[in-house]
Each structure stands twice: as C-alpha cells, then as structure tokens.
Amino acid sequence: MKTMLSGIKPSGQLHLGSYIGAIKQFVTYQEDYHMFVFIANLHCITLPITPAELTDNLRDCLAFYLACGLDPERSTIFLQTDVKEHAQLGFILSCQTYLGELNRMTQYKDKAQGKNRNDVLTAGFYTYPTLMAADILLYNADYVPVGDDQKQHVELTRDIAERVNKRFGQIFSVPEPVITKVGARIMALDNPAKKMSKSEHNTKGTIFLKDEPAAIRKKVMSAVTDMVNKVSYDPVNQPGISNLLTIYAALEGITPQEAEAKFSSLQYGAFKSAVADRIIEEFAPIQARYREIVGSGDLDRILAKGAEKARPIAAGTLKTIQKAIGLDIF
Ligand code: AQP
User: 295-315 in b/e burial notation, b at 16+ Cβ within 10 A?
Assistant: First the structure.
C-alpha cells in the first residue's frame, strides 16, 4: 500500500476551504492509502499567535479531523511536536536548501512585501518550507494531497529529496503532490480574487466549520457576484458565481459544469440559497459529532496512539540520514 501524508496548520479556525481542499480528501484517501495526518503545530508559531488561541485551535483541529470521518484505527493521526524528529530533520534539511530557493517561495514573497517586514517576519517563517519537507520525507510519503497554494512547497520538497539522494545515497522517496480536481482553491466569498483563509480578518468572506446555519446562510447570500445575471461557470468573467458553483460541485462530488447545468435557469438569489442549503446539510452531522468529541477524554488517547505509531518510522529515517551525512559515530 502506498503512503500518503498531509496535515493542517491550525493557525486559526478551520473553514470550508480547509474542509474541501484538505480534510474531505484525507477521509477519502484513508480507504486506499497508508495515511499519515498530522496537526502542524510548529508551523503555527511561524507567525504571531497567542498561547490560548493556539491550544484551542489544536484541540479543534483534532476534533474536526475525527468529526469529518478520519479514523484513528486506519490513519495515523498525530501532533507534530509529539514526534521530535520533525524539528531535527527540519534543521538538517535547512542545511541542504539554498537561500535562493526559499526566496522564491510565493508565500514568503507575498509576506515579504508587507510593511515592517524585518520586524514582523521571523527566521522560522522563512525556513518553514524546509520543516514542511521534513514532515513529508520522514515518512517517505509517496503522495501529498494539498491545495493549490501548497504545491510549490511539495515541489521544493522533491528538489531537496533528490539533492540529498544524489549527495548521500538513496535515502528519501520523492513525493508527488496530489491536487484535487474540484476545489483546490476555494475563494473568499466577499472577494473571489483572494483565497478563503484562516488568517483573513474579514470573516464575511470565510465560512468556518463552526459557523451556525444562520451565519452560513448570511455569508453565502451576501457573497460577491456580478452583473451578468446568469449562473454559469466562467472563473475569469464570473469569479464569484464560479466559486459558489465550485463549492457546490465539490460537496456534491460533481464537476462545476454539472453544477452549472443544474442551476443555469435560476436567479442568483435562488442559486445562492441552494448553495447555502448544501453547505448547511454537509456541516450538520460534522458539527454534531464535533460537539460530542471535543469535550470527551478521547482526544489525548488518540494523539498518544498516533505518536506511538509515527515515532519509530520517523526515528528510523532520521537515523539513516544522520549516518549518511556523518553525524553519527555508531
Ligand atoms: N481556500 C482553500 N481552498 C482549498 N484548499 C485550501 N487549503 C487551505 N485553504 C484552502 C488547503 O488546506 C491544506 C491545509 O492548509 P493549512 O491550513 O495548513 O495552510 P494554508 O493553506 O496556509 O491555510 P489558510 O487557511 O490560508 O491559513 P493561513 O491564513 O494561516 O495562511 C493545504 O493543503 C491547503 O492548500
């Protein structure tokens, strides 16, 4: 069975984009792959976050993984810091990565244009792609399901793996990104030119997994559209409507074109209402399970079990590379 690995950085509340672009995929893939799903807590501290918020987010992330259908008996679900090898391999790989490569990372370039960047952006934020490479390579993952924005990081991981293998012998599997066909980039409802994001402070554009039905309906009904007045899938000229079609299609397991055929005769108001209904229907059982799970004592036990399964694999890979590069005496 091939190995797949992915994770989420719970730097804020999880949202519809995290669900469609990540968690929903993980749940499907656990049927056919040896699946590792982790909570990327180290990645959360690359940008400012309060300790209380971070702790809450970690618990929520795990509870939502389970509520959405990740099965700890089938998948290895763990917290990144419970496996110390992530940070250790991250440092080793940062010594195999060139500054030019990190400078080219789009997420860094975007943030590096901001005001006061020298006092805001940390060394950890700059080198986080090498930590992400370690996350993946520790488990010799064959495939890494990611949303559109993370593809570049998996490509850097491949380059680092190939470089290490060339220099020190065959150590790492070279992973391939897996990008979902529908919903790899869910856009903000209030600005379809921007990705739906946890760190976006304007919450009108983001549907959170925790949102009540009334809030979901309000956000969808006020989603930015256009003056064309025809429901059609045309991301260039009708980005708002196309985003809503993509959301509906991803939840329904159909193509945006099939969704368009279903709604093309409707006015925007009726179409938006159908999309809101579909999201509310999808979230209802997830939110009910989340409420049961989040207060239960099961979360600790599940993380402990996941770390127990992940640690020996990670330790084996770290030992191999340490030996290969001459860090170990025995
Ligand atoms: N809007 C999205 N559409 C589709 N996929 C998405 N993902 C995130 N947002 C969308 C995918 O979810 C996985 C986990 O992402 P992450 O939470 O670890 O990091 P991120 O991409 O940086 O997510 P955010 O919400 O945009 O967080 P902030 O605002 O903190 O940067 C990834 O595979 C991602 O592509």
Answer: eeeebeebbeebbeebeebbe
